[in-house]
């Protein structure tokens, strides 16, 4: 469903991604793990169209989207939940969710999807008129995911969903990601909590300084000595 071929990205004289290639099949959760600065967020931002690559291709369902705008990629079903949540703090929960559907014209199904988001996240339903900036970190993460779901993504790009959250909330967020995937949404997950990411992912890639150094099923990566030592505390 998503294929990245020989992707190279640079900022000034620094090469952040050094010809990486990876794929995500329909219905999978694929995770990218690695240390800070490895290139995980840059990969997602390039896939979603926020960063332009120097070289390489990005294919969605076999169609080349490398030169499409970020907005055009949303229309193709590529939707990102950004690192740090990035909700609109002075807007209400409801207004943030409605912004997620800004490209859609089907008012009836938008209203139905809004009901679905509130059913999935009851805390957001209780706070629908509240300014997003007054929510807790976990509630803001739920809002960021809900906002993305309002775009009806085929491929959900999740960047560090557990960042800054208490352990119980981390469990809840990862359960929600699994449920979204079980409902038919393909997921590309960037996450520093490698242990949690590999528990819910089907496959994974390990990035180090802009290169993929390991790839395999989640079970294979979990049992690899390098991954245990570097990311799982073993």
Order of helices and strands: EEEHEEHEHHHHEHEHEEHH
* Spatial extent as radius of gyration: 17 Å
In order across it, which strands form the biggest sheet? 6-7-8-3-9-10
**Per DSSP, what share of the residues sits in E-state strands of 2 or more residues?**
25-35%
- The mean pLDDT is 91
What structural category do the secondary elements indicate? Answer: alpha/beta
What is the CATH class name of the largest domain? Alpha Beta
Q: Percent helix among the residues? A: 25-40%
* CATH topology grouping of the largest domain: Rossmann fold
CATH superfamily of the largest domain: P-loop containing nucleotide triphosphate hydrolases
- Count of domains: 2
What's the count of strands?
10
Major sheet attributes: 6 strands, mixed
Domain ABC transporter: 2-234
Family: Belongs to the ABC transporter superfamily.
GO molecular function: ATP binding; ATP hydrolysis activity; branched-chain amino acid transmembrane transporter activity
Protein name: ABC transporter ATP-binding protein
Write the layout of secondary structure elements.
Layout: E1 2-11, E2 14-24, E3 29-33, H1 40-47, E4 55-60, E5 63-64, H2 70-75, E6 78-81, H3 93-100, H4 107-120, H5 122-126, H6 137-149, E7 155-159, H7 167-182, E8 186-190, H8 194-200, E9 203-208, E10 211-217, H9 218-222, H10 225-231
Helix pairs in contact: 3-6
């Amino acid at each position: 469903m998503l294929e990245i071929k020989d992707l190279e990205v640079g900022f000034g004289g620094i090469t952040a991604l050094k010809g990486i290639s990876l794929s995500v099949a329909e219905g999978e959760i694929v995770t990218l793990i690695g240390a800070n600065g490895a290139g995980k967020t840059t990969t997602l931002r390039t896939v979603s169209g926020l960063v332009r690559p120097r070289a390489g291709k990005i294919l969605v369902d076999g169609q080349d989207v490398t030169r499409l705008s970020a907005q055009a990629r949303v229309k193709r079903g590529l939707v990102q939940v950004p690192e740090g949540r990035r909700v609109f703090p002075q807007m209400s929960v409801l207004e943030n969710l409605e912004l997620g559907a800004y490209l859609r014209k089907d008012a009836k199904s938008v209203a139905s999807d809004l009901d679905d988001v509130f059913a999935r996240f009851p805390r957001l339903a209780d706070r629908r008129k509240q300014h997003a900036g007054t929510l807790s970190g976990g509630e803001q993460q739920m809002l960021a995911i809900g906002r993305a779901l309002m775009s009806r993504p085929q491929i959900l790009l999740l960047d560090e969903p557990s960042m800054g959250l208490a352990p119980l909330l981390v469990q809840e967020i990862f359960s929600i990601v699994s449920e979204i995937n079980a409902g038919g949404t393909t997921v590309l997950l960037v996450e520093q909590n490698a242990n949690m990411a590999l528990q819910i992912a089907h496959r994974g890639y390990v990035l180090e300084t802009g290169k993929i150094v390991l790839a395999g099923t989640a079970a294979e990566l979990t049992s690899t000595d390098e991954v245990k030592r570097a990311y799982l505390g073993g």
